[in-house]
Predict the 3D structure of the following.
Amino acid sequence: MRASRGFWGATAVVATAALLLTACGGGGSSENKGSGATDANASVSVYGTEPENSLIPANTNELGGSKALKPVFSALVGYKSDTAEPYNLMAESINTTDSKVFDIKIKKGWKFHDGTEVKAKNFVDAWNYSANGKNGMQNASFFEQIQGYDEISAKEPAVQTMSGLKVVNDYEFQVTLKGPFSVFATKIGYLAFAPLPDKFFADPEAFAKAPIGNGPLKFVSRTPNQNMKLTRYDEYQGEDKVKFKDLEVRIYTSQETAYQDLLSNRLDFMEALPPAAKAGGKYKTDLGERLVEGKLLGISALALPYYVPGYNNLDLRKAISLAIDREQIVKTVMNDTYAPADGYVSRGIEGYRPGVCGEFCKFDPVKAKEFFAKSGFTGKLTIASNADGGRKEPLVAACNSIKNALGVECDFVPATDFGQWRSIVNNRQLTGMGRSDWSADYPSIENYLNPRYKSTGSSNDSTYNNPAVDALLTQADQTADKAAAIKLYQQAEELIAKDLPQIPVWEEKGVGGKSNRLKVAKLDFGRLADYSSIEVAAK
Amino acid sequence: MPQYILRRLLQLIPVFFGTTFLIYALVWAVPGDPFAGKCGQVACPPAYIEMMTAKFNLDDSIFVQYFKYLGNLFTGDWGETFNGVSVGELIGNAYPVTVRLALIAVAIEAIIGLSAGILTGLRGKGFLDNLVLMSTTFLISIPVFVTAIVLQIVLGSELGIIDASVSEDATIGELIVPGIALGSLSMAYIARLTRTSIAENRHADYVRTAVAKGQPRSRVVGVHLLRNSVIPVLTFIGTDIGALMGGAIVTEGVFNINGIGGLIFRGIQNREGATVTGVVVLLVMVYLLVSLIVDLLYAVLDPRIRYD
C-alpha cells in the first residue's frame, strides 16, 4: 500500500518537475483590432515564477525576478519593444568622442518612489556597490569595462569606488572605461545599471524586501511563492508609462495550471506556453486571436568543444551542420515556435544579415556525407544537454537527422538539470557536442559575439580561439563610430562562420498568450511583457 | 498513562535528530555545485559564489554545517532561502493552507470511505459491493497527479464549475476539489479496509450475542460492531494526516496552492537545504504527534488496551 503510493509520488514529482522546468518560450506582439476604450484603472495579472535571488537590480538576471523588478526601475537607456532600438530614457544625453569617456546627463525632476530625487550620484553609488566584490552581486561583471573594476571586484577590495566614475554635478556624471567600447551606451539599459536611492545603502536587505525604484510601477507587496503586487507610479515621467493601474505577478508552480487560467481568462498574460500546449500546435487553436508572437533575441547552437579529441576538425563540423534538417525539426518537433538559424546573430538585431552561415546551415545530406568521409571521424557522436523543459526533443531529432544523413551513431546525453549542465560546460567536461543557447542581455550584435567567440569570452563553450577574430572584435569594441563598429563585428562573424566553432541551429520566435480582457499586449526581446504596451478593454 | 505519554515524547528526541540530520545530509550531499546554473549561460562571479558558500557554510564538513543549522534552529531561526526569504516566514505562510487542505482531504476520505466500507461490509456481495470494489480499484490504480489534472481540466476548463487554480485566500470552498484529488487514494483504501474489517467482525461472537439479546440493529452496528472495526481504519487515517501534509506536493502543484508541499518541491528543485530541512522537521513533528494521539485513542475505543 505505502510502497505503491511512494512510487506514484516519485513518478508524479518527476512529471511535475518536467512541466515546471519547461523552457520559458515566448516573445512578440499581437493586437486585437478592438475599438473599445482603454480602462486606465484596471488591474492586470501576469504569469510569474519565484525570483531566484534577492530583489536587487544587480542581483537579478533571470525571468522570475526581472518580471517584478524591471518595471520598478528605469535605467538610463530603454529599448523600443518592436525594434529593440535603444533610446534615452532617464538619460538626457550620452556623449562621447572616443568611446572611452562617456559624459552622461540625466533628466531633472525624476523621483524615486519614496519621493527623493534621482541624482547622478544615485547611479554612481549603485554601480560602485554592484561591482564591489564584497557585496557578491551576480551581475557584477557587467561593470567590467569601467576603469577601476579590477580593483573593486576583488573579494576584499582596498577601494570602495571605481576610478572611472565621477560625479560632475547633481545631474551629470562621467564614466571612463578601461579602453574604448562602442556598445557601452547600449549596454547601460540593462537592469543592473539602474540607479538606487539613498535608502538602499542604509539597509540593502530591507530594501530587497520592498524595493524602491524610479520606474513606471512601484512595489506594493510580496508574498513569497504567491505573488508580487505593483501599482502605477503616477508621477512617472518616462515615455514608457503604463496604461493600467495595478499589476500582479502571480507565481505558479506549474505552467500547465497557468495556461488553464489563461484560457479561462483568470490570468491576463503569459510569455511562455507549456509543452502540452505546444504539442501538435494545439496552442494555435486554443488561443486564436489571443496568441502573442514575438522576436526574441536569442539563438540556439551546438558547441563542438575543441578540447574533445576528434571534434577539432573543420570537415566534421561542416558535415554535422549540413546533416541537420533544421526546417523539418522546427516544424514537426517545435511546432513553429522556433525558426531555423542561418547565422550567429538573431534576426532583428542591427547588423544582422541573412545567410551568414551560408551553405553550411542548409540541409544537404549528400555534401554532408562527403565532408564526413573527408573528416575521417570514427566512433560515435553525442549531443549533451539538460533534458528538462523540452530541451531534449529537438536535440534527439537533430541526432536522428545526423544519424540518417551521415550513417554514424548519434546519442543524446542528458544532464539532470540546468545547474548540473552548466557546471559540466563551465568545467570543460563535455565529451561531445553540447547545447549552447544564448539570450542577449542587451540588443547589440556585440553581445552575440564577444561572450561566445572571443577566446576570453565568458560563455565560450567550445573554447574557440582565433586570434584574427579576437583582434577584429577588440577593434570593433574600440571603434567609436557605431556603423564602422558594426562592420567590424560583421567581419568577425564571417570569420567565425568559416571556422564553425558552433553550429547555429534555430532561434526561438517566442509565443505567448493573453486573456481576452487585454486589447493590446506585446512581448519585448527579453521575453518579458512590454508593460507599457498593455491596454485593458473598458467594460 | 502520563508516564506513557512522557516516554513517547522522549522518544521524539532521537527521531528528531536522526531525521533532520539525514534530510540535511541528503539535500546538501547531492553532487554538483548549487550555484552553477544561477547566472545563466555565464559562470557566476567568484565573489558571488564565495559569498553564498560562506553564507550557507558550504565549506564546512556536513557535520559542522548541520550543527550550525541546528544551533540557529534552536534560537528560532529557520535559515534563509537563496533569494533571501526567511524559511520561517515561508512556512508560516504555507502551513495554514496545507492544514486546511489536509483536513478537508481527511474529512472527505473518512466520510465517503467509511460509509462505503460500512455499507458494503454489512450487505456482502451484490451490486453495491461490486460497484465499490470497481471504483476503489479504479482510484487506487490512477496516480494522484492524473486525478488532479483530470478534475482540474474537466471541472475547470471544460465545465467551468471551478477555477483551474486556487486563489491567494485559498478558502474552504476552493479547496474541496483539490481535497478530493488529494484524498481519493486514501478514500479507496479506507473503504476497502472498513469493508474487510466489518465483514470479519459481523460474524463475531459478541455481535451475535448483542443481536441475541435483542439489541436494535443500529446499536449493534454503531456501537458494538463499528467500535472494534474502526481501529485499523483509525491507524490508517492518523498516519495519513502526516502523509497528506507532505503528499500534497503534487496536488498543490497542480492547483497552484502555496502550501507546504509546494515548499518542499521548490526546495528540492533549487537545492535549498534550509527550506527542505525546515519543512521536514515540521512534518516529522506532525507525524509523530498524530501517531501518538492515535495510539491514545485506541484506549478509548477498546478499553482492554492499556498503557503502563
